Amino acid sequence: MSDSVSIGTLPPLGEVPPKMLAQVVRQDRLGEPQDAFRVEEIDTPQIGPGEVLVAVMAAGINFNNVWAARGIPIDVIAVRQKAGDPRDYHVGGSDASGIVYAVGDGVENVAVGDEVVIHHGYWDPADPWVLSGKDPMIAPSARIWGYETNNGSFGQFAVAQAHQCMPKADHLTWEEAAAPTLVGTTAYRMLHGWKGNEVGEDDVVLVWGGSGGVGCQAIQIAKVAGATPIAVVSSPDKGEYCVGLGAAGWIDRTEFDHWGIPPHWTDGAGQKAWTAAARDFGKRIWEILGERRNPTIVVEHPGEATIPTSIFVCEAGGMVVICAGTTGYSAMVDLRYHWVRQKRLQGSHGTNDPQAYAYNELVRAGQIDPCLGRLLTFEEIGQAHQDMDAGRLGLGNAAALVGAPGPGLGGKAG
Ligand SMILES: NC(=O)c1ccc[n+]([C@@H]2O[C@H](COP(=O)([O-])OP(=O)(O)OC[C@H]3O[C@@H](n4cnc5c(N)ncnc54)[C@H](OP(=O)(O)O)[C@@H]3O)[C@@H](O)[C@H]2O)c1
Q1: What is the fold of 184-347?
Q2: Structural contact between residues 213 and 396, judged by C-beta atoms closer than 8 angstroms
Q3: How far is the CA of 315 from the centre of ligand 1 (A)?
Q4: What would the pLDDT profile of 10-60 be if each residue is shown by its tens digit?
Q5: Which fold has domain 19-180+370-401?
Q6: Is the pTM of this model over 0.90?
Q7: CB–CB of 397/61 below 8 Å?
Q8: Residue 392: which residues within 8 A CB-CB, separation 6 or more?
Q9: Residues flanking ligand 1, CB < 6 Å
Q10: Where are the CATH 3.40.50.720 domain residues in the chain?
């Protein structure tokens, strides 16, 4: 007889089985996500002081565990082992909705039975940087939960720090609630977290990948702040999806071919051609707005392919804020435009508590749609990451059912 319960079921509240089922990545199968993930029965993780054990009802799918499955740019298991963690497996998953089953010493903000979602900002509370009151997401101990840490949401029980737990929106199903928190809180920090360039009603916000995870949340967060979001997409159906979320219009990036590192500044003819193409791209923004206004914030994540264009079209004093380099890391910055027009290229990563809580309140108030697209089974988690890597996962965010007995449950009607 198995020591774990079946997927789609829960043990009685507060009773934790010794084993659990999890989608496990191991070092001897790092590579294609469809092969790297495998369902295994493993020990249910233990919690320590300040930690919470959550029975996962649904898990959101994010790009970070594509990287974990491939072991690129880092082998997360090796990195943890080097730091003294003996575990030879990775259970990822940075988005969860679930029910609290146990709390560690000192936990006061949640109790057994609470319905929660989990944000992905994780740090050592004893880190001197954190204790000094500075932004903990910049601390040396800051980690992305369920990517750099183990026992994320791709197992029946996840371990989180208590401060990561936030109340689940009552009106959302388990799968809707599990879908947006990582990308949403990331987008919130990008748009609200950088003093001097916080989004406001005078801003035009250009959002790359508007129909993707970060993009669909960034459009809505900008709109709620009164700004004018404009999406960049690769097809008309994606563009119209973004308009439905509040974008003023969209640009089809497939109509342009000036991507990647521009010709060197000593190549006059090459520079002229590149600048003309970037200008044409910028003109599309003016056409959408009906006036000559440039984006004051550009939400970036493709990186190498798009950074030169992002910086080119960004308004003087504006900010290109970047949370990834999906197309590559060697982005080129033409310093002439950068310093003379006093633009800002700002890295942004994860979330801190106030940013996550503020975002979650927007979700709870129904002001942000989680944009659940594909709904998956627990067994499909590996293939879902494969599809995400290939750009085939569909519009918005995706989630997999774990403990929830079926779709459509957990909301007001469920
Ligand atoms: N640092 C953090 O805390 C953090 C948090 C969340 C996500 N991320 C990272 O952010 C990135 C995006 O995540 P996501 O969840 O939004 O992924 P996603 O749902 O797959 O969306 C990515 C979007 O990028 C666009 N895209 C793909 N190739 C492109 C190219 N060559 N040029 C321009 N756009 C391109 C696609 O839209 P079109 O094809 O329609 O253009 C796609 O919708 C990932 O690398 C992820 O790991 C980082």
Answers
A1: Rossmann fold (3.40.50)
A2: yes
A3: 23
A4: 999 999 999 999 999 999 999 999 999 999 999 999 999 999 999 999 999
A5: Quinone Oxidoreductase; Chain A, domain 1 (3.90.180)
A6: yes
A7: yes
A8: none
A9: 62-64, 182-183, 186, 208-209, 211-215, 232-234, 238, 253, 301-302, 305-306, 323-324, 326-327, 349-350, 388, 391
A10: 184-347
